[in-house]
Amino acid sequence: MNNDRNGIKGDRYEDKFFVDSTKPVWNYSLFADDDIRNFQQGTHYRLYQHFGSHPLKVLDTDGYYFAVWAPNATYISVTGNFNDWDVNAHPLVVRQDNSGIWEGFIPGLKKGEVYKYHIHGFKGRKLDKGDPFAWFWEKRPHTASITWDLDFWWNDEKWMEIRKQRNSLQAPWSVYEVHLASWLRPDRNDEESYSTYDEIKERLVPYVKELGFTHVEFMPVMEHPFDGSWGYQGTGYFAPTSRFGDPQGFMSLVDVLHAEGIGVILDWVPSHFPYDAHGLFMFDGTHTYEYADMRKGFHPDWNSYIFNYKRGEVKSFLISSARYWLDKYHADGIRVDAVSSMLKLNYSRTTGQWEPNEYGGDGNLEAIAFIKDLNETIFRDFPDVQTIAEEATDWPGVSRPTFKDGLGFGMKWMMGWMHDTLDYFKMDPLFRKYHQDKFTFSMMYYYDENFMLPFSHDEVVHGKSPMLYKMPGDEWQKFANLRLMYSYMFTHPGGKLLFMGDEFGQTSEWNYKSDLDWHLLQFDPHRKLKDCIGDLNRLLRNEPALYENQFSIYGFEWIDLGHRESSVMVYRRKGKNPEDDILVVLNMTPVVHRDWKITVRDKSAWKEIFNSDLEKYWGTGDVYNPDISTQLLEEENGVYEITVHLPALAAIVLK
Questions:
Q1: What is the pLDDT of residue 5?
Q2: Rounded CA gap, 300 and 636, in Å?
Q3: What contacts 649, CB < 8 A, 6 or more positions away?
Q4: First and final CA of the chain: distance in angstroms?
Q5: Is 515 in contact with 521 (CB distance < 8 Å)?
Q6: Spatial contact of 115 and 148, defined as CB atoms under 8 Å apart
Q7: How far apart are CA 637 and CA 630, in angstroms?
Q8: What is the DSSP letter of 290?
Q9: Residue 508 to residues 164, 336, 463, 516, 564, Cα–Cα distance (Å)
Q10: What does the DSSP 8-state code read for residue 139?
Q11: Are 43 and 316 in contact (CB under 8 A)?
């Protein structure tokens, strides 16, 4: 058992201020001079040890210490049920160092009390705000923060010891993307019905384990007021949502995933935040966290506000948030949302709606510097995790080190591959021969970045149709095409990401108000598609050629692109040991090809190790290769010709 308790015990500084026990709020501080200096300079990345509400013992008296940053406030008090929301009962004290930090210790305050900060802000505005650093919030529609602790006994020592290998870029990456509320509801017709973290743990963990995914990625679990934002409009940057339980409940979910050898990636949104009255917007009556210039500070796409990356205190806040989830919740990585919108000043803006930077360009220099510092800090403090960028432009070096003038992410979503692949597979197979170049284009730019191949939630909403119904043909052909596309995805270089429901052929678009179409698993096509995904995951894990060189030019080779008319393509995946090499053959049309010839080098014997047309996957099961004949063509150069049978709309993998 791990005794790494997640409180702040041992991290405190000695009380710096005089403690007057006759007042309702005692003068007390967790800040040293270095903390203030680093906070203001944007280099304090453990602010969660200082700001927010913390259980402490002062003068042998238990209570909670509070600290909040509101530089333009003239008065702040802590209000809650414990003082009948009396704005005069527990005023905080402003530090006399121009830091804008208000703080104090309330003796006798217990865990589980709801509270807000009552703020007299700029020009006398009176505001009631939740705590930006709260560890726990009320379940919406309520908006108060809750005094809490982070005590938890972790049992994931074995995972933490090996996760450097599991999270390596030379390890298999197969990510199951999950929206916790709608994966499974107690009542699928009631959007107010939520499973608890414990119920999710009991059902999700064995399901992911059975399917063989290496990681799960949770769409934002950080507290958010509006379900329809899917979590991407957040107010609680240090709190898992209370929809499913308390912080320890989420810790337990992560702990059990780790016990089963499954990594946890968290979606994290430093690009924008909503204008809810209890949130960060106009926090002290002024633009505290957001840019004051709305050409930079307002996001037209999402009707939200953009963090002021130039302000040191905001930069410290954001990087502390990212670090917090890795530190206190043992997350194995973060996927940073909407990076493109952060990088470009003209993102979704027309001429006149944005102002160039000091060099006349369209890059947001402060955001670029913030992103680099974010990645440098994470990989310095947690070298065994990953950061992943959702970035959809041709911005160079997103997943290259900062010392090589990159942004420093570990991986980047390959949005171009996703669009090209879906466009290709949506076509009638008879026309695919005219678009082979589009299909193969990904390898022309693949080595520019460390790419992850995403079929995410964005591809199955807003009228885009579920993955199954993107496929052409009758029912059999739709499933065959989908198995073929997934086979291509799992054998293409790079990490893989699949959204929940895609693994069994969801027949409706994703609906955050309901849950997945689990009833479909009673039908063979859907259940057997799920089995195919499980076997593809096991193929990925078991074949080093599919991951050891997944970001190296030595890991992939086109073998045959010369049969456009038949739409048959062949490529080789290569591991560090040539004995591990595999051959992937894709037949993109509903035509069976028997005695198909393929020219290969160095290997005189091959066997079929995967076939997406097997009956166990709801394929025909009548075209396969129990024996593969090989003929030597050039002994000197080790050139052979192999003969295989190619099932219709299917992939076969040879080793």
A1: 35
A2: 64
A3: 429, 477, 480, 481, 484, 587, 588, 589, 590, 613
A4: 43
A5: no
A6: no
A7: 15
A8: B
A9: 38, 28, 10, 9, 34
A10: P
A11: yes
Q: Provide the 8-state DSSP code for 110.
A: P
The SS3 of residue 341 is: helix
Residue 241 to residue 250: CA distance in whole angstroms: 9
| Closest to 585 (Cα-Cα) out of 526, 511, 644 | 644
Which helix H or strand E contains 491, and what residues bound it?
helix 475-491
Report the greatest alpha carbon distance in the chain: 95
CA atoms within 13 A on the CB side of 118: 13
For position 18, what pLDDT does the model report?
A: 60
- Scanning the structure block, which residue is given the tokens 């967790």? 30
> Using CA atoms, how far apart are residues 87 and 72, in angstroms rounded to an integer?
18
Quote the pLDDT of residue 422.
97
CA 268 to chain centre: 7
Which secondary-structure segment (H or E) carries 165?
Answer: helix 157-166
State the DSSP string of 507-568: SS---TTS---GGGGGSHHHHHHHHHHHHHHHHHHH-GGGTTTTTSGGGEEEEEEEETTTTE
Backbone angles phi, psi at 35, to 5 degrees: -60, -45
390 is catalytic: yes
Dihedral (Cα; 273, 275, 280, 285), 10-degree rounding:
140
How far is residue 140's CA from residue 118's CA, in Å, rounded to a whole number?
20
Instruction: Extract the tokens encoding 441.
Output: 């284009």
268-to-536, 538, 618 alpha-carbon distances in Å: 28, 29, 38
**pLDDT attached to residue 17:** 55
Q: Which domains does the chain have, with CATH numbers?
A: 33-146 (2.60.40.10), 157-546 (3.20.20.80), 556-654 (2.60.40.1180)
Contact 205, 262 (CB under 8 A): yes
Residues, the chain: 655
How far apart, in whole angstroms, are the C-alpha atoms of residue 515 and residue 564?
41
In this structure, what DSSP letter does residue 363 have? B
Contact 80, 38 (CB under 8 A): no
Q: Of 284, 332, 390, 548, which one is the catalytic site residue?
A: 390
Is residue 546 within 8 Å of residue 539, measured between CB atoms? yes
- Clarify whether 337 is annotated catalytic: yes
Partners of 66 in the β-ladder: 53, 104
Q: Locate 464 and state its tokens.
A: 């885009």
Among the listed residues 337, 366, 391, 459, the single catalytic one is 337
CA angle 293, 299, 303 (to 5 degrees): 120
Among residues 591, 598, 413, 430, which one has the least CA distance to residue 494? 413
- Coil, helix or strand at residue 645: strand
Mean pLDDT by 10 residues, the chain (655 residues): 37 51 86 96 97 96 97 98 97 96 97 98 95 97 98 97 97 98 93 95 98 98 96 97 98 98 98 96 97 94 95 98 98 97 95 93 96 98 98 95 97 97 97 96 96 97 97 98 98 98 98 96 98 98 98 97 97 96 98 96 92 98 95 90 97 98
- Has this prediction a pTM greater than 0.90? yes
Neighbour count for residue 465 (Cβ, 10 Å): 16
Instruction: Give the span between the Cα atoms of 503 and 74, in whole angstroms.
Output: 55
Return the structure tokens found at 234: 């957040």
